[in-house]
Design a protein that fits this description.
Layout: H1 4-22, E1 62-68, E2 82-83, E3 88-95, H2 134-140, H3 144-153, H4 161-171, H5 192-205, H6 210-216, E4 226-227, H7 229-240, E5 245-249, E6 254-265, E7 272-276, E8 289-290, E9 299-300
Parallel strand pairs: 2-9
Antiparallel strand pairs: 1-3, 1-6, 4-8, 5-6, 6-7
Length: about 300
């Protein structure tokens, strides 16, 4: 039988090991060893059949980096504020090479508490998720820097940020082949691909400083001046070499979204994103577009 001294020593060692694990960032990257010897081709441009969907974006090969311009969050009283001098993240939206797209492609990895839509086109109901939040997944991997960045730039409207994050992985991340669980074997750790997806979304977002690109061309948020579609499009085209999708509501008069289109060489996590012209016509009017200022109490100064 262990003495009290021995038991105390054992507990101390276990506690120390646990504390050590808490300070370590668990790795989130997939296993791409098998990809090294394969042909290198952009998604949707391959001339031969891509045989490894973990090495190439086979499902969801047309990738859209989407950003929001919201003027308030609705949760300011909870400290949920927009980043001053920056658009916010919507996500990475996968479109199949033939123009179709899937949603909630793996219900075993459905973490959205309020799925939208609530039913798939085939009639399958999407059950609301009731477990630990995706925010907890990130914390379990000890990626506090990632969580801080997401809370700064990936901002929801009318609901907590973590609900938007959960929806983006469940609805879109599960429809991108390189985030399949099999791509993280052997040694997969539960939710590894979820955290890796969030790392990827934030990385690609940083390729497109939309606010700064527009501001440098003299296009600033204003409650007194409107812009034309060509002004906004040309400013972004001059820095990206491609025409993005611009989204507007209220009969095409209020700007609130931009999508940058890509084909990807290699994995979505670490491959090269080639910017393409939008395949979707803008929903904005040709003239009289409002790029409204944000409510002053709805944003905060952020560091990049």
């Amino acid at each position: 039988m262990l003495s009290l001294i021995s038991l105390a020593a054992l507990v101390s060692v276990v506690h120390a090991n646990f504390q050590y694990l808490l300070t370590q960032n668990l790795t989130t990257y997939p296993n791409i060893e098998a990809c090294v010897a394969l042909p290198v081709e952009y998604s949707c441009e391959n001339t031969t059949v891509l045989t490894d969907s973990c090495c190439n974006v086979v499902q969801g090969g047309l990738v859209l980096q989407a950003q929001y311009w919201n003027t308030y969050t609705g949760l300011e009283f909870h400290g949920q504020l927009l980043p001053k001098g920056s658009w916010s993240i919507h996500g990475l939206l996968p479109v199949n090479c033939n123009g179709t797209f899937g949603q909630y492609c793996d219900l075993s990895r459905q973490y959205d508490p309020k799925p939208s839509p609530s039913t798939l086109p085939n009639g399958t109901a999407i059950p609301p998720y009731k477990g630990p939040s995706v925010k907890q997944f990130i914390q379990e991997f000890n990626h506090s820097d990632l969580l801080h960045y997401m809370d700064t730039f990936w901002i929801n409207q009318g609901a907590p940020n973590k609900e938007l994050w959960a929806r983006e992985f469940s609805k879109h991340g599960t429809c991108t082949s390189t985030f399949d669980v099999a791509c993280y074997e052997p040694g997969y750790v539960e939710h590894q691909e979820v955290v890796n997806f969030y790392e990827t979304v934030t990385k690609v977002f940083q390729m497109y400083p939309t606010y700064n690109m527009l501001a440098a061309a003299g296009i600033l948020p204003s409650n007194t001046t409107t812009y034309t579609l060509s002004q906004i499009t040309n400013a972004l085209y001059s820095q990206t070499g491609a025409v993005p999708y611009l989204g507007c509501y209220s009969n095409g008069t209020i700007l609130d979204e931009v999508w940058y289109f890509h084909h990807v060489l290699g994995t979505e996590q670490y491959g090269h994103f080639k910017t393409l012209n939008s395949t979707t016509p803008s929903s904005c009017a040709e003239t009289g577009i409002w790029y409204y200022e944000r409510t002053a109490t709805s944003e905060r100064v952020v560091s990049y």
